[in-house]
């Protein structure tokens, strides 16, 4: 039987203590979700694809670097990096780009490495919020993707060609093609997920850095400080509503609160003696999950769904979905229980 990630593996024989139980809660890993940033700017694509081919030809004479005339274009493996800022490990991570260097620094690099293009300006206050975060994440990635910064005042033609109507504006380019974009300032957690999704689409593996907010929330949960953990998870979800790890953490907080001071044997016995008591069945399922008997908990609640109606049925359904959240969508028992729930409902 598969035990939901983060749940204790053995039943406790005494009353449930959040501090004791939480000390055994393991942190879980969720797959990166697809790009779902609400601040994406689909209008960029609705107006027509950005024509990057115009930048592949030659470089305007006015912006051709001194001594560069007659030289062959740089290869994707070794593009010119006059404006590059390497990471501490030596890999190029952040590059200042102009129209003269766009072909080598962005288009050619993008043939092998995702490039995130940040359109900014010195007078733009929101840019001063977003750009440092982008630079930090680029350095953390160690060259897995490149941040190309374009000053729209220095390179207005680039901004025109990308149809930039407001800044900050960020584009992801891979294989010489634009793959996604967003405008405005978004929280760091959302930005991490967006970049992870870009890299995933490009087939690039990036070591996921620990989210400090999630780490603090998990630590509070492990310490038994449910109020602090709840507030921390809710803060993450306010910034990133689709954060599966925060959803799972918040569901665990609810589970621990509901079972605080409950004797597992008594809860199971009460449910057996009163099968019509919905509250007793819900509590018994909670105890079973905490005891490592998630499959039994799911089966219990599916059967309650079958024999209840109206408000009671909906209450049980929502409770069961909350338990699913803690295990994650890839859990085999969850997948099986979801099919059983669907059959019970329809």
Annotation keywords:
346 residues; alpha/beta; Serine Threonine Protein Phosphatase 5, Tetratricopeptide repeat; Glutaredoxin; 2 domains; 47% helix
Walk me through what this model shows.
Helix 7 (212-222) packs parallel to helix 9, helix 11 runs parallel beside helix 13 (310-327) and helix 12 runs antiparallel to helix 13. The chain is elongated. Helix 4 (125-141) links the parallel strand 3 (115-120) and strand 4 (146-151). With 346 residues, the protein is an alpha/beta fold. The chain contains 14 helices and 6 strands. The relative contact order is 0.14. It has helices spanning 18-22, 43-46, 102-108, 125-141, 156-161, 188-201, 212-222, 226-239, 244-258, 264-273, 278-290, 294-307, 310-327, 332-345, and strands spanning 84-86, 92-97, 115-120, 146-151, 169-174, 177-183. The chain has a 6-stranded mixed beta sheet with strand order 1-2-4-3-5-6, sandwiched between helices. It is 47% helix and 10% strand. The chain has 2 domains: 18-31 and 211-345, Serine Threonine Protein Phosphatase 5, Tetratricopeptide repeat (Alpha Horseshoe); 43-60 and 74-201, Glutaredoxin.
SSE succession:
HHEEHEHEHEEHHHHHHHHH
Overall morphology? elongated
Q: Tally the helices: what do you get? A: 14
Q: What is the tally of beta strands? A: 6
Low-confidence segments: 1-49, 58-82
Structural class comes to alpha/beta
> What is the class of the largest domain in the CATH system?
Mainly Alpha
Can you tell me the CATH architecture of the largest domain?
Alpha Horseshoe
End-to-end separation in angstroms reads 27 Å
Rg: 26 Å
Main β sheet profile: 6 strands, mixed
> What proportion of the residues is helical, as a percent range?
40-55%
Question: What is the mean predicted local confidence, pLDDT?
Answer: 78
CATH topology of the largest domain: Serine Threonine Protein Phosphatase 5, Tetratricopeptide repeat
- Strand content is 5-15%
Number of domains: 2
Q: Please list the strands of the largest sheet in the order they lie side by side.
A: 1-2-4-3-5-6
